User: What shape does this take?
Amino acid sequence: MKALAAAAVVFLATPAAAQIAPPPPAAPRTPPKLVVAISVDQFSADLFAQYRGRFTGGFARLLNGAVFPSGYQSHAATETCPGHSTILSGYRPARTGIVANNWIDQRAPRADKTVYCAEDESVPGSTHEKYTVSDKHLKVPTLGERMKAANPASRVVSIAGKDRAAVMMGGHRVDELWWWDGKTFATYAGRAEPAVVTRGKAAVAALVAGAQAPLPLPGWCAALDRPVTAGDQIVGQGRFARTAGDARGFRASPASDAAVLSIAAGLIQDMQLGKRAAPDLIAVGLSATDYIGHANGTQGTEMCIQMAQLDQALGSFFDVLDSWGLDYQVMLTADHGAHDMTERQIERAMPMESHVAPELQTRPIAAAIAKALGVTGPVLLGAESDIYVDRDLPPATRTKVLAEAKRRYSAMPQVAAALTRAEIAATPMPTSPPETWTLAERARASFDPDRSGDLLVLLKPRVTQIEKPGPGYVETHGSPWDYDRRVPILFWREGMGGFEQPLSVETVDIMPTLAATLGLPIPPVDGRCLDLDSGPASICP
Assistant: This one.
C-alpha cells in the first residue's frame, strides 16, 4: 500500500511536460507484401457518415487507420467506369480515356455506334450490350502494371461484381481477372481457370440455386422500415429474400459481395500473394451496394442491411488474412456516390426533387432541330450526358445544329449548363480543391477529345436522370454534384497510427500514395501522395 501511495505521489509530482502522451506510432517503414485495394460501388460519403457509428467489423478496423471522409471523384461523369479508372491509375478520366460507361463512336465498325467502356467493339457481331470484355479503352497504366514494371515477379489480381470494375482497377497486365457476368464468374477467353475459382464458382452456383430466407433486420435499421411507392412498385422494406435460381436477386444482395470476397481470399491463398519476395496486389470490386441502391434507393431497410452485412463480410475477410500472417495494406474507396430516390426525398423535406422531363431526351430535341433547320436524318445522337452531332452533316450544318442544340438545352428549366466541346477544351485543368471547381472544370476533368460529345448537358441539383422509375432502377448517380462526387478514402495497415483528415482529397491521390508505401517512384500523375504517417515523418518522397 505504501509503495502504491509513493508511486501516486511521484506521478502527481512529475512535471507536466513529462506527462504528455507518447506520440502515435509512425507508419511502417518497410513496404507491405500485399496491397488490398477495395472499391465499394456507390459507397457515398453520405452513406459512410450515416453508418460509421454502427460499424463493428471490417469498417471499424479501417476507421483506426487514415480516414479521409471527403474524398472526391472530382470529375463530372460520376459513373462506374470513369470512377474505377481513377482509383489505381492516379489519372482523371480526361487522361484515362474513360469518359463514361458508354459513349458514341460514329466511326465504330458496326451498326451500333454506342461503345461500352470495357468492350472491344471490333469483334464481329458485337453490340454495346452483347460484347467481348476488353481493356483496350483504358489509356493509362495502373498501379499493378507499375509494380510489374519494377519487379516482374509481382502478381496482380482483380476480381469484381462488374467487368468494368475488374478491368479498370486491374489494368492491362493482370495474372488473374474475374467478374460476375450475371450467371457466374468469368474471365478473358482462352485463360485457364484455377481450381480455387472452380470451387468458388460451384459454391456460388449452389447458393444461387437455393432459396434465400429474409435476412435479419438490425434493430438500428427499424426507423427506415417503411414503404415508399416508386412507379409501379413498393420499396423500402426489403430483406433480400429470393426464390431458387434468382441470379438477378443474388447480384443485388449482400451475398454477391461475400462471394467476391470469398474468391478473392481463395486466390490470395492459392497464389501465395503476400508470401513471396515481390510485393503483390489484389483489386476487389464490391458491386452489390450499387445494385441495391439502384433498385431500392439508399434510405430503406435494404441499404441498412447491406451496410451491416458488408461490414461483417469485410471483417471476416480481414480476419482470414490475419490468420495467414500476411503483412497487407488496405485501401477502400468508391467509384462514385449517389443520393436517395426521388419519391422518398420528396417525402423527407425535399419537394424540389424531380425526375428528368421526357422533353430532355435526345430524340425529340433532334427531331425539332432537324425540322427547324430543314435537315433530314438523326442530327443528334446521345449517350449518358454527352450529345454528338451527326458527323455526316456538312460542316456548316453541323455548326448550326450544335448552336441550336446548345440554345434549346440551355433554355430548359432542369438544365444547369450545356457546354460545348470547345468551351470544355478551353477550360484549364483545375488545380484548386475539388469542392471549389466550376461546372466547366468538373467537365474538363472527364473530357477526352477522342470520345467526349460535342455538347455536355448537365442537369440541375436534385434532378435525377431517371425519367420514370422501374424495377431495379429507382435511383441513380452520374451528376456533377457533390452527393455523387464525394466518397470516403480509407487506408489501414497493422501498426500504422490512425488519424482523420476532414479536408478534401481525390481518388487520383490513391495510386501515388500506395506507390509510396511500396517504395515505387511516383510518376507525374493528376494525384498527389497522401502522407499516411500521423506524426512529423512522411511516407511521401
In short: The CA atoms of residues 314 and 425 lie 42 Å apart.
